[in-house]
Design a protein that fits this description.
The protein has 209 residues and is of the alpha/beta class. It has six helices and nine strands, in the order ααββαβαβαββαβββ. Helix content is 26%, strand content 28%. Helix 4 links the parallel strand 3 and strand 4. The mean pLDDT is 97. The chain binds S-adenosyl-L-homocysteine.
């Protein structure tokens, strides 16, 4: 899988490639789907949610430029797979907090992270559109569900010079993976690829139902 992602140009940076080599994706998908873990598809993790395709995650992480020692907030823990990759990138010198709104998925993600040795990643149940003030300011914020825009509390909790990435758009229509860098004078937004994520449901996201 990693070789293909490199060949197709999704993975470029040695540290990101190494993180992908280290994290066992099959440990983060439901047992019945393990044989598909290394195919380039999103997979169901229950409750209508999905773990993203490896190529999408590669693109997300390459575009965010996560560095060793950084403090990273993830919104949408799901399986915990992406949080494990973030943990590899920041190492124990940094901090990874991942927020999940559905308690059952938070437990699933937490358990997967524990089993694979990433027990130091903090999984919090809550509405990630409000961010996580106790850990702010964040160097990087990653939203793994589709949002109408960058939620204002997350922009407030991002340090100047920090980056936030999210699939922005409508969940039934077009979404684009966007990364914003917070400067003294405002945001510099870069658009990457069209994509398809489940909705971000919360106070500054979409309404439930
Ligand atoms: N990063 C995950 C993929 C998660 S799919 C992985 O690696 O597997 C998106 C997740 O975002 C779902 O689990 C969904 O329940 C969660 N989510 C949606 N809205 C949220 C919100 N406001 N706060 C926290 N999590 C949210």
């Amino acid at each position: 899988m990693v070789e293909e992602l490199v060949r197709w140009g999704y993975l470029r940076t040695p540290r990101v490639i190494e993180a992908f080599r280290r994290v066992p994706r099959e440990e983060f998908v439901p047992p019945s789907l393990r044989r598909y873990a290394y195919e380039d598809h999103p997979l169901s993790i229950g409750l209508g949610q999905t773990i993203s395709a490896p190529s999408m995650i590669a693109l997300m992480l390459e575009s965010l430029e996560v560095e060793r020692g950084q403090r990273v907030l993830e919104v949408g823990t799901g399986s915990g797979y992406n949080a494990a990759l973030l943990a590899e990138l920041v190492t124990r010198e940094g901090r990874v907090v991942s927020i999940e709104r559905l308690p059952r998925l938070a437990s699933f993600g937490r358990e997967n992270l524990r089993r694979t040795g990433y027990d130091w990643v903090e999984v919090v149940v809550g509405d990630g559109t409000c961010g996580y003030e106790p850990g702010a300011p964040w160097d990087r914020i990653l939203i793994t569900a589709c949002s109408p825009g960058f939620p204002p509390p997350l922009l407030d909790q991002l340090r100047v010079g920090g980056r936030i990435g999210a699939p922005i758009g409508h969940f039934y229509h077009t979404q684009v993976w966007k990364v914003a860098e917070k400067g003294e004078e405002g945001l510099r937004v870069q658009s990457f690829t069209p994509c398809s994520f489940v909705p971000l449901v919360g106070k500054y996201g979409w309404r439930e139902g």
